[in-house]
Amino acid sequence: VKLENDHEILAHTAGKMRKNRIRVLAGDTVLVEMTPYDLSKGRIVFREK
């Protein structure tokens, strides 16, 4: 995932997105939660329309 500040992180879809089979394609705008312990990892929690 490429962030607005041009950093790139590794992000996986969150549990409810995976459960409801929400597809995330290249170019989609998403909301990402990041862990304070490792700033190179995150969780995709929402896909913008």
Low-confidence stretches at least 5 residues in length (pLDDT < 50)?
A: none
Portion of residues in beta strands equals 25-35%
Order of helices and strands: EHEE
Mean pLDDT: 93
Number of strands: 3
Pairing-aware structural class of the strands and helices?
A: mainly beta
What is the terminal-to-terminal distance?
Answer: 17 Å
Total count of helical runs of at least 4 residues:
1
Tally of domains: 1
Q: How would you name the oligomeric state of the polypeptide chains in this document?
A: single chain
Radius of gyration: 11 Å
Q: What is the fourth-level CATH superfamily? A: Nucleic acid-binding proteins
Q: Under the CATH scheme, which architecture would be assigned?
A: Beta Barrel
| Net shape | globular
Order of the strands making up the biggest sheet: 1-3-2
Q: What is the fold named in CATH at topology level?
A: OB fold (Dihydrolipoamide Acetyltransferase, E2P)
User: Into which percent range does the helicity of residues fall?
Assistant: 10-25%
User: Which CATH top level class fits?
Assistant: Mainly Beta
Instruction: Please summarize the sheet with the most strands.
Output: 3 strands, mixed
